[in-house]
Amino acid sequence: MQEVQRENRQAVVTQESLGAVTANIREDRFGGRDMLLYVPSVLPPAGQRALLVVLHGGGGDARFMLEHLKINGVAERHGFVVAYLNGTAATRVGGRRLKAWNAGGGCCGKPYEDKVDDIGYVTEAVAHLQRRFSVAPESSFGVGHSNGAMMVQTLACVSAVFSQVASLAGALVAESASCPAARGHTILNYHGERDENVPLAGGVGSRGVVQINYPSQDQARSKFEASGGRYLLQVLPGAGHSIEQLCLSSQQQHGMSLAERLARDLGLTPP
Question: How far is CA 16 from the centre of its chain?
Fold first, then answer.
């Protein structure tokens, strides 16, 4: 699972160069798990604030997403809170730093095997953050990469915690025949054209560590939309599975970083 977290580690850009402020990064803890928060220097008045919850991929952690998604500078400029949550140990060995989520459908690793209630954990963590920062539920959004993307899709399918999520290189693996919570929910799925870990056409990825037979994007769309939701697939030309490749394609295609594009599409910044 951790292969996608190892790609292009030299591509990390300092948060300061993107307009973020290091002092605004805070360590926090909820439900026995650590998390990282980015709280911008100026917050809108209570009731007008927004929250973005970020979920890492398999074998990653909150710190990896903070360094690679590079959205803190966008949050600083537009005044929304970013919360980077942590899953639980992905493997029997090395679990203190290699984490994953139980998104269903065999994904991923030890959390799935142990039936960790990550739907419950994320739901309670988001409610905690909403109270702490005076954020309304309708102004709370989720984004995840890889296994984290599968987790946000599962949440949009079976829970009420987010009405809109952004999925980076994920698939809908929720273990239910339909999506009972999908009505009124939107999944924005950004997927690399050349993703060899979670193929667009479905099946077992040629570079994936976990041997999961993923549903195709067409199957995911049909399932989600049949339940009343919106499933918007945006294929990024030439990109593989890593955040860096998705970001490069977004920059080439639209002249904006992946972080800027996500924030715009989720309504966190002006169109």
Answer: 22
Q: Are 18 and 12 in contact (CB under 8 A)?
A: no
CA distance linking residue 185 with residue 5, whole number of Å = 29
Q: Are 163 and 155 in contact (CB under 8 A)?
A: no
Q: Give the residues across from 81 on adjacent strands.
A: 51
Q: How far is CA 264 from the centre of its chain?
A: 15
**For residue range 104-121, what is the model confidence (pLDDT) as tens digits?**
999 999 999 999 999 999
Question: Which of 71-80, 176-185, 203-212, 225-234 has the least mean pLDDT?
Answer: 203-212
Q: Nearest Cα to 81, choosing from 146, 32, 125, 124? A: 125
- Give the C-alpha separation, 99 to 222, whole Å: 30
Average pLDDT over residues 173-188: 96
Backbone angles phi, psi at 73, to 5 degrees: -65, -35
Side-chain half-sphere exposure of 2, counting CA atoms within 13 A: 15
pTM equals 0.93
Instruction: Give the contacts of 116 (CB within 8 A, at least 6 positions apart).
Output: 87, 88, 101, 102
DSSP result, 219-238: HHHHHHHHTT-EEEEEEETT
- CA dist 51 and 122 (Å) reads 13
Angle at CA 152, nearest 5°, toward 93 and 133?
A: 100
> What does the CA dihedral 119, 124, 129, 132 come to, rounded to 10 degrees?
170
Contact 261, 254 (CB under 8 A): yes
